[in-house]
Specification:
Layout (H helix, E strand, L loop, with lengths): L2 H13 L22 H12 L16 H16 L14
Helix pairs in contact: 1-2, 1-3
Length: about 100
């Protein structure tokens, strides 16, 4: 099962109903989820994908749609696989 399918399962479980919106539509504006469900969704994503989502990322905008969540999870998995990703290289000799 791909990431997006797993994310949809989580959203459907939290909302208690089948997802009937497109991957780019807002989960919050469409009424699928409310802002109170955000923390439950974060916990479910962390558990499902074995990732850590920092408090600084707990904003509805980052998790607004299935597509945004999918992109976030993909980046978080990449970061977890390569902890130095995105950090500046210090002390590199000049060439």
């Amino acid at each position: 099962m791909n990431h997006q399918a797993r994310i949809i399962e989580i959203v459907e479980r939290l909302s208690g109903k089948p997802l009937s919106i497109g991957p780019d539509e807002s989960l919050f504006e469409s009424g699928v989820l409310d802002s109170f469900a955000l923390t439950d969704m974060i916990g479910a994503l962390e558990k499902e994908f074995s990732i850590r989502i920092p408090d600084s990322d707990l904003t509805p905008r980052k998790f607004e749609s299935i597509a945004r969540i999918d992109a976030y999870v993909a980046h978080a998995l990449l970061r977890a696989a390569s902890p130095t990703l995105g950090t500046p290289r210090m002390g590199m000799p000049r060439g």
